[in-house]
Amino acid sequence: MSAAIRPPEAATPIFRNGFATTALALGIVGIGFGLSVLFGLLATIFGALAVLFGVIGFVRARKGRATDGGMAAIGVIAGLIAVLIGIGVMVGLPDQPDSLSSIGLLG
Length: 107
What we know:
DUF4190 domain-containing protein, membrane, mainly alpha, 3 helices, transmembrane, transmembrane helix
């Protein structure tokens, strides 16, 4: 009995999507900054970057040059939430430090 010789199977290429990972991480960090009272601007910046990277990652996934299109979409959603929270914090927070004590943020 002789063993049949098979040609080597083609390896499936693994495309990773660094843009999707970056978008998700920036979105989560942006939401975290948005939930802390004094970092509305950082939440807005991180959220906007998350949306940008998420859109790039989603387009790359749709073209077949990368994977994780779902992660890119979640990164865009997290980025939008971070932007909304950041803008809400910046608009809702009073400008004068003495008025912070009237809303209970400072002693």
